[in-house]
Design goal:
The complex is a heterodimer. Chain A has helices at about 1-15, 25-35, 40-50, 60-95, 105-135, 135-150, 155-170. Chain A is mostly helical. Chain A starts with a helix and ends with a helix. Chain B has a domain at about 1-105. Chain B has helices at about 10-20, 30-40, 45-55, 65-105, 110-140, 140-155, 160-180. The chains are: A mainly alpha, B mainly alpha.
Chain lengths: ~170, ~180
């Protein structure tokens, strides 16, 4: 029980600073789950990102995966509920009185001003993850192929990930 | 927009569960599906109101989820909002639980390891493409570039925590917005 409360509190805190879309969760969760708490290995973390991209839900489904690893199904449920609690409560509050919100403009400009830091953080996450997990020429080849496909075609990331998994399976990547 | 009768909570649940189960592609793909269903097919909400919800949805958390919450609230108040949000997340939640169970149970299978080894570099490519896309639309002007570079350097080279960087950027940005509002 104590473990679940700790998990709830942890995901609640992450939910409160969940600015700038789903990708900011990658540096946040990587730092907390892999570096600090060591609930996941780097490999498991990357695999979790891959799995969360296979669902229609937001990248935040990564919280479900991490919660599952930490405490099984109850952990998955607690992680999911608490990471989405702050944004849902905020959205309900805004919906009920959005015409009256005088400070809305201030919030929007603050948010826009903060986004460059999110971009920097996401880029740093790619750097940090790549530095430790890309080790062979084959990895870099896949990285470049992935970059080209994801940047210049409209193929859904889900299919790119499934395609890469199929390649790995067929050619027995070790 | 006039609604002749109240939409039932069950109907809200069914529609958002359907959106959550079929909206593969995430993000904007979900939003356009929600728009098609709620604005055009069901005529639950006007386009203008829907766009407001989308704008507010950018503030905190995933906007796909937030837009669903907004439409649910618009139809049936807080209960409607919570039902729409839960119904939207439910299919992905079930799928992820299943995948997590498979993953942690069959972790050692060499076939699974090979498949996932193929995906790792692609995930990094995905993160880079996300950073480039966000950078193109959100980083404009020298000051913004400086902030992006500082955040990158602090996280990649100095190993500062993402939380610290975000809070620092938020305080800085709030201060600037406040100053501009008071002095203009």
């Amino acid at each position: 029980m104590g473990g679940l409360v700790k998990l709830a509190w942890l995901f609640l805190k992450i939910g409160v600073i969940f600015f700038g879309g789903g990708y900011v969760l990658i540096p946040l969760l990587h730092r907390i789950m892999v570096d600090q708490l060591q609930w996941l290995t780097l490999k498991e973390f990357l695999d979790g990102v891959a799995l969360s991209q296979l669902t229609p839900g937001p990248l935040a489904m990564l919280a479900t995966f991490t919660g599952y690893k930490a405490a099984g199904f109850p952990g998955a449920l607690v992680g999911t509920v608490f990471i989405f609690l702050p944004c849902t409560v905020l959205m309900l509050a805004i919906s009920s009185r959005y015409e009256k919100m005088r400070n809305m403009e201030l919030i929007r400009t603050t948010l826009d001003g903060l986004l460059p830091a999110v971009v920097g953080l996401v880029a740093a996450a790619a750097w940090n993850l790549g530095k430790t997990s890309l080790s062979s020429g084959r990895d870099f080849l896949l990285l470049i192929a992935g970059l080209l496909i994801l940047q210049f075609t409209k193929v859904s990331p889900m299919f790119v990930i499934l395609g890469a998994a199929a390649l790995g399976l067929v050619f027995h990547f070790s | 927009m006039e609604r002749s009768q109240r939409v039932s909570l069950l109907e809200i649940f069914k529609v958002f569960f359907f959106i959550g189960a079929t909206g593969f592609g995430g993000g904007m793909a979900i939003v356009s599906l929600t728009e098609r269903v709620c604005v055009h097919e069901k005529k639950w909400i006007s386009m203008e109101e829907f766009m407001h919800g989308l704008a507010f949805g950018q503030i905190l958390g995933p906007f796909s989820l937030n837009t669903c919450t907004f439409v649910g609230y618009y139809l049936r108040g807080p209960v409607g909002g919570i039902i729409a949000a839960s119904a939207f997340i439910a299919p992905s939640f079930i799928l992820i639980c299943l995948l997590s169970w498979l993953y942690f149970t069959f972790h050692e299978l060499p076939q699974l390891q090979s498949a996932l080894n193929g995906t790792n570099p692609v995930i990094i490519a995905l993160i880079i493409v996300a950073a480039v896309g966000m950078g193109r639309s959100k980083v404009k002007g020298n000051e913004a570039w400086l902030m992006a570079l500082a955040a990158f350097a602090a996280a990649a080279l100095l190993n500062a925590s993402a939380l610290t960087i975000l809070v620092a950027a938020a305080v800085w940005s709030l201060g600037r917005s406040w100053y501009r509002r008071e002095h203009s």
